[in-house]
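Design review, sub-item: ligand-bound model
Attendees: FS, YL, KQ
YL presented the inputs for the UFG complex:
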Amino acid sequence: MANILVAGGAGFIGSQTLLALAQDGHTLTTLDNLSNGFADNVIVGDFIEGDLHDAQLLDTVLVDRKIDAIIHFAAFIEAGVSVTNPMDFYDNNVAGSLTLIQAMVRNRVRKIVFSSTAAVYGQQDDHDLLHENLAKQPINPYGQTKWMVECMLRDVAATGDMEAICLRYFNAAGSDPDARLGERHDPETHLIPLVLDAARGVRDSISIFGTDYATEDGTCIRDYIHVADLADAHSKALALLLGRNETPGTPSAGFYDAMNLGTSRGHSVREVIETAKQVTGVDFPVIEKERRPGDPARLVADATRANKLLNWQPQRSDLKTMIADAWRFRQNL
Ligand code: UFG
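KQ shared the predicted structure:
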């Protein structure tokens, strides 16, 4: 078992992954600046409040805690916000990650699993399922920042100093089985939590951003994936990296891979809203609005690479289950 640093472990996917890593028997340290996360999401392991730009803190943590590997979730994630506020995304997501990578190389911490995103693909009109090898053409600064970090990791891995796996998540949803850890962003911008807030009467209505996309019902299609399935994939990616013991600096030590985590099944915004009405038993007003800037029409994964390389299959990612789990969490808020 290993000493793992989880950067951004106080967030939605990070906190869920901590539970999976604890089950695997790892010793865990979470580093999070709480800009979007919550300290009480860190149910297992130690918590340090701190920022990835703080190179000195990173050196101390990596050395004192004898860190073997890092899982890096710490990033701003709202695609829409990145369009209006790009510099914050470049600073936090790119400069923060560079500082972390430099600290890793300086301290000979070699293994990293990085949270990437379907947003690296952008609009791909000719492909219903997105394969990892497609051209990366993000249409928002968020996706661009994640792609830039993937490139940094790939290039550093090629020197033999690092081994990296980038996991490109599609749309995370659900909560843990005990409904303790779910999506709670402030302000919330994501579809499922907002729909559920309409169902519980915290919002008057839900807006559909764009009904004129070239999709079956005119609304955007996303591949929703249960957060517990994402956590399982991190545990498996980490196991794959930890099982590799090549000599640093040799070409084989520069292992690098990027894979999609999704179900290969897409759901439209209208479908999400209708399913939420069924699951909650509540009807609520739906308002059709203009498109939101930076939204690709369709993002659905070809996940065969992760299925094979990680021996990973989603277990809880049908839409009703994800919305039911998210609903239990949301009602507890
Ligand atoms: N949407 C609405 N109304 C809302 C909120 C969202 O219609 O009130 C629509 C959006 O326009 C989009 C879809 O619902 O078409 C999903 O939007 P989200 O904001 O829930 O999620 P995104 O697809 O924009 O982005 C999310 C994560 C990213 C990740 C991406 C991968 O925020 O980190 O999924 O697909 F990269």
